[in-house]
Amino acid sequence: MDLTKEYPRSVKAKVHGVVQLARTIDKAKAVVRGNVGEYSYDCPMDNGLFQFLGIGGEQLLDIVRSSKSDAEIEEKLAPVVRKKSVQEIEQWNHEWLTRRPEGRSLEAFEALRSQVAPNRTDVTTWPDLLDLDEKREVPVAVA
């Protein structure tokens, strides 16, 4: 994964049914390879995921470093994810995809939205805004 040349997967992409995990794995792979570019690994969004899963950023980096493929990374993460029930994962996914930014996060969100998509006031979550920023289609929300 070279994040100086491509985007990480969407926050909405799932690994073992968990949103944010695919994106965080992509950023970890880029950190290990030294090409994370403008992306930040172990950022607040990654930390939210780590807290939910009960792991740390260094632990994921160790998994990535010791794995030869995406399949092996996912295999090593399976026992971590299995500690969560289907209901816990569904609740996490729903909350993570619908939570609106607050405080400093809201300031950063509004600044980025004004650059990326100033006319998209219907975009109110980081997953949607990051998708727009990374040239993914985000349907217009209907009130």
Mean pLDDT: 95
Given as residue ranges, the uncertain stretches (5+ residues, pLDDT < 50) are none
Residues in helix, %: 55-70%
Write down the domain tally: 2
Report the count of strand segments: 2
**Sequence of secondary-structure elements:** EEHHHHHHH
Structural class: mainly alpha
Strand content: under 5%
Order the strands across the largest sheet as they lie in space.
Answer: 1-2
Task: Give a quick account of the main beta sheet: strands, pairing sense, barrel closure.
Answer: 2 strands, antiparallel
If you had to describe this structure to a student in words, what would you say it looks like?
The chain is 55% helix and 3% strand. A hairpin with a 2-residue loop joins strand 1 (14-15) and strand 2. The longest helix is centred in the C-terminal third of the chain and has 14 residues, at 103-116. The protein folds into two domains: 1-83, no CATH class; 99-136, no CATH class. The chain starts with 13 loop residues before the first strand and ends in a 10-residue tail after the last helix. It has 143 residues and is mainly α. It is built from seven helices and two strands. The chain has a two-stranded antiparallel sheet. The mean pLDDT is 95.
Brief overview:
With 143 residues, the chain is mainly α.
Observed structural traits:
mainly alpha; globular; 143 residues; 2 domains; 55% helix; two-stranded antiparallel ribbon
What is the element layout, followed by pairings?
Layout: E1 14-15, E2 18-19, H1 21-33, H2 44-53, H3 57-65, H4 70-81, H5 86-98, H6 103-116, H7 126-133
Antiparallel strand pairs: 1-2
